Amino acid sequence: MAALRYDGTMKRKSPRRLPGRREDGAATKLQILEAAGEVFAEKGFDRATGKEIAERAKSNSAAVNYYYGGIEGLYAEVLVEAHRRMVTYDKLLALAEAPGNAADKLRAFIGLIVRTIVGPASSTWALRVLSREILSPSSVFPILLEREILPKKRIVSGLVGEILGLPDDHPAVARCLLNIMAPFALLLVGNRQILAQFLPGLGAGTETPDAVIEHFQRFAFGGLSAVAAELEADRPSTRPGRGERRDAGRRRPESKGRRD
Known about the structure:
Elements: E1 3-4, E2 10-11, H1 25-43, H2 50-56, H3 63-68, H4 71-86, H5 89-97, H6 102-118, H7 125-135, H8 141-164, H9 171-189, H10 192-198, H11 209-234, H12 242-250
Helix pairs in contact: 1-2, 1-4, 1-7, 4-7, 4-8, 5-8, 6-8, 6-9, 6-11, 8-9, 9-11
């Protein structure tokens, strides 16, 4: 009960601090995000509960609603953070705007993604959460698409379009981008044990990240070269054909008329 002061007003007691509770709200929010990432990676969005996440974060059960507006909002933020841990928009933008040609930048992008997927980060909750979401998209996938996937895709499409000499929204650019990105998706969602049984050479332990990167780059640019050659062959030629040149050579100059 609050005590009375001598002037008759009520004296408020300072709120009692709960033991172990963080005063820094940003740190608490991040702690919940990390715990949620682990739970979602283990159980998926459908089977995870806010109570379990709060317990793992050593936080109040109401913290999920307070910081994220509920478990759905929390899951959306986990997906966004997971995609950022694979590659951030700022890092991609810096790569695209750096000096150099588009081909070298695309090679660097391929190396960056492969190293993330096959490196130590492959065992973290971030990539496992993304793998689950790709295989079974949830109701919050449009948030991930709008905030992370599409902005980054536009950067990479710009590189591919520059290599092909096409606008980044050209259908040929989209097809090439699909071929470039598909191996990443397979490595991300594929079970390593199953892949090793299906493709024993990949599971023999002899493939280094550098070897995988070089192979992906070789295949990507082999395909881009073939598409570029086909596009060039389909473009109408501005030079006269062989028959036109022959006819032009046979033309006689106009006569100037007879002199009297």
